[in-house]
Design a protein that fits this description.
about 290 residues; alpha/beta; Rossmann fold; 5-stranded parallel sheet; two-stranded antiparallel ribbon; 9 strands; LmbE-like_dom_sf
Length: about 290
Amino acid sequence: MKIYPVDLLIFAPHPDDEILGTAGTIMDAIACGKRVHVVFFTNGDGYPEAATLLFGKPPEELRPAHYLELARIRQQEALTAAAMIGLRPQDLTFLGYPDAGLGRVYATTGAMPPFQQRFTQRQATYGGLLPDFHSMYYGCPAPYRKACALGDTKALITMLQPQEIYVTDAADTHLDHAAAHAFVMEAVLQTGYTGAVYTYLIHSGAESQWPWPRGITPELPFEAHLVEGHRVPLSVPWPPPIRRPLTLAQAYCKWQALLAYRTQIQVEPEFLQSFIKCEEIFWTPNPYK
């Protein structure tokens, strides 16, 4: 397994988060001749709504084999989306930790047994279309434990030596997204990483409240708005410290890459396509707090 130093290292909790939060940033970097690598914490294998639509079965009739097939399909979707924004298959790494369980993995410490994901019934990392990182690099799967997921995160930061790291924000209200942030921030501290860290926000408040405005609006920026007296997005500074413009061509390319995630678009078309704006926005956390 060959790993080369990169300029940008993107951590995504699930396949599609990298497009939602950073597709334009990735395209800009590649256009400047920079190396980009995307790491997916999960294979997206814990999403009953997507599996129900994909297989035409109610949730109670879905079996582990269905969710493992969903993981394989979501990896294929990730490869297709990546190609649309200039990434190659070797620019993607799948860790294979559990979708809808990454927060539980983060809490699995000490002598606790590995977490078992209820959808796949797995307790260790695995590949779908592509093998998981731990199996490729160490020769065996990693149990669903914090020490393993943190170790994989640290290993990738050390091997890839990025100038910039991108990960979901601590304020993201999806538990997997908050856990991805926690793993990366802890790895940053423990590896002594000194480059830049940027965060992006996918979930904030109810699904209909963020992003805003709703719908495909490639000519408009992201906006905050009041919902029952609370400013959404929640718990992040506004305006965001970094607003990177996207051209109409980039916004269109981002939209096409997002549409490659057919299993996701079928479930949440308005929510996902509301990330098609004239910009991408980022925050700069302090990992030493």
